[in-house]
Amino acid sequence: MSIRVHSITTRTPTEEELRKISPRAKPEFISYVLMMAMSASTAWIAGKLGHWLGAWISPDVAKYGQLIGWAAAAGLLLVLLWTLIRFEHKQRRLAAKDLEKRTIEDIHVQDARVIEIRQISSNDQPILAFDIDDNRILLLYGPWVRHWSVYGAPNSAGDEGDETFNGLLAPHSFPSDAFIVTRFPHSGEVTRIRVEGAYLAPGVEVDAMKPEYELRPSQILEGTLDDIASVLARNFARC
Fold this sequence. Notes:
The protein is α+β, with helices and mostly antiparallel strands.
C-alpha cells in the first residue's frame, strides 16, 4: 500500500519568478476599461429595448422604458464593479505580500490521488484536487493548468496529447503521481510544475464548485477528497 506524502521547501525567488508575480501586485486597468466598454454597450441595448417595449403602450411610456433600461444597466455595472474591485484588491494585496516576503515554495508530492472538480457555473476553469497527505488537499485552479509553459514543455500546436488532462505528452503529462509545484505562498501563483512520475488520470468529476467561491491558483486545505464539497464550502462559502 502506497503512502501519500508531501514536503515543502522554501527559497528565495529568482529574478524571473519575481517578474512573474510583480504585475499581479499592480491594478489591472485593462479589466476596468473592458468592463466600462461592455457596460456602455449593455446600457445602450437595455435603453433601446426599454424604449421599444414602452412604445407598444405610448410614446411617453417609451421614454420611461428607456430610462428604466439605463437604470438597470447602471445598477448591474455598480454590482460588477464592486465585485471586481473587491476581488482585485484582495489579489493585489496577496501578491504584494509575496513581493515583500520574497519567499517561494517548492511542494514535493508523491503517490498522489487526484479528482477533477466541476464548476456549477459558466466559468469553466480547470480545477484539480490532490490528496497529498494525511488530511491535506492541494487545489490547482485556472486555465494555466493546461498551459504548456508551466511544465517547461515545447510550444506545440499539435493534438498529440489529447488523451491527457493538460494536452501534453510524457514527460510533461499532468496530473501525475509525483510532481513538484513551485509557487508563491500568499497569492498561490504557480510559476512551474515539474512532472516526476507517471501520468495519473483524474478520478470522477465532482460537482462541488459554486460561482461565489474565490479560489487562488493554488492552495493547501485541510480535509479529504471524499469530503471535498464540505471542504470547499468551509473555506470559501461567504457567511
